[in-house]
Amino acid sequence: MSLGRPVIVRRMLLLSIPLLVVLLAAVYLGMSIGSTGVDLRAVARSLAGGLSDDPTLGTIIWQIRFPRALLAALIGATLSLGGLVFQAILRNPLAEPYILGISGGAAIGAISGILLGLSRFPGVSLTSFAGSMATLLVLMLIAGTRSMVQNNRLLLSGVMVNAFCGAVIMFLISITQDSRLHNIIFWMMGDLSLADMHQVTILGITVLPCFLFIFYLAHAMNVLLLGQEMAQSMGFDVRIIVSLLLVVTSLMVSATVSHCGLVGFVGLVIPHLFRLLLGADHRLLVPACLLGGGAYMVLCDILARTLPSHGEMPAGVVTALIGAPLFIYLLKRTER
Amino acid sequence: MKPAVEVRKLAYRYGRSPVLQDLSFAIGSGAFFIILGPNGSGKTTLMKILAGHLRPQRGNVFILGKNIRGYSRRQLACRMAYLPQLTRLDFPMSVRDLVLMGRSPHLGMLGLETEEDHRLAENAMRYTNVLPLADRRMDQLSGGEQQRVLIARAICQQPQIVLLDEPTAALDLAHQVAVMDLMERLKQEKNITVVMISHDVNLAAMYADRLLLLKDGGILGIGPPCEVLHHQRLEKAYGCPVLVTESPLGGYLRITPVPRRFRKQAPGAPPADP
Which of A48, A294, B29, B234 has its CA 20 to 30 A from that of A57? Predict the structure, then answer.
């Protein structure tokens, strides 16, 4: 019954292509910057296959910096999208996996997995997923399904769940004596320094189908903004859509957490920025958050690598330093 | 001609307390049908069942001649639009985007609207006189404007039936009449069946072709306003003495609730303290 070309597709392309360029530029920059300084031309020469004179630099670029930039991009994309989905489902612009404690639950699961001596994949990923689902369940029980849509009760419950998760993590750390301790602490704060292609592949295989699935439900998320009754009267089964979104989002967030630890506030900064720029249409916001969030995280990781004069700091520190003040600003604004 | 909505021996209860009991009635195609009744009489439950949000526990509901259980949500949405009571939107969304969402049931999962869909949305906005607001944000509009936008959304859905739950509740006099006029036009020009819950007996008397008066989940009266709006029946329904007179505009009834200090003089009203 519909004639002509969908109007929205053109807008999606007009938006995605520049953002993809930004993402690629960020990855390129990530590959160029290291402890030896910035060398933009080396990557270009290496891409052209002309780096045979310096095989060490080639190895550093392709074995260390490239997987790290890719991992950062995947993490940023996942966390931004996770924030976007939670904000749409809960109809609260302040919702985010980290603030709601979902990431914390995943971290408890992951640390338990590490302490049990499980392999990173699939062992730790599974315990991490179990942890995030458990927190989601607890959160919904505390907040009550009725107040899912209204707001601050859920947010407060999330803050409490997050605090509790923090305490459990500290407890787990305090009973750990051996060399795993340093690893756990660094991992927890969002450490990307151990990235390799194998890890990137596994995470990619886990989260890319989730991205596609969530994009498929992007228009359903638009309609959800109108409230449950109106969404149902437009032919959407709200209960099924919300459950699917919650499970898929928790799955991809916990997969990310099990690989890189706790990186906070990305899911707040990026969706908010794009909502200001693009409005409320999730068919634009989903690709924007994926590409823009990926680029943002790559840049944060570059800062984490270059800011300290000795060594580096976890990327989660950078995202929190930027994100926490913004969260307070948003909270002030919504109070009005 | 098949009725737009037919309800047969419908019953519904929340837990152990019955809300609707053995309801049977039909709404003719192209009618302006208004459901009246005091708070807690089961109006909203009835409307939620008609809209497909609640499943009838006993009895059957037929929409356009087909049992409501036989429709998928999407099929139902292509035939019937529903406006719940006015709620505020937390997210800034443009009027145009919201109205365009009315196309969703006719499109695929991603809701990829074509030029044609945009044109339908513009027509709907023109119809409810909100086209000048198309690029404004919903949270910047007044209650009356928001309601007209939501009605445009319903029109854009191209339904045969529109269900409305107290669409005039939060509006001032002018906007109340504007919304009711709009629904009347919709019925006359597009032959859409309008089913509405209202607390405003006078608006109902002015606009409805048929009224349903509910009390404790049962039918107290059904038919044209001049038959249903009898003062004894209204007093039984609302538990408050009323005066029913001819409106000075002529052609329909006017209902005046009688304040305590007038109850002795009011003709046709029972004594003040029974």
Answer: A294
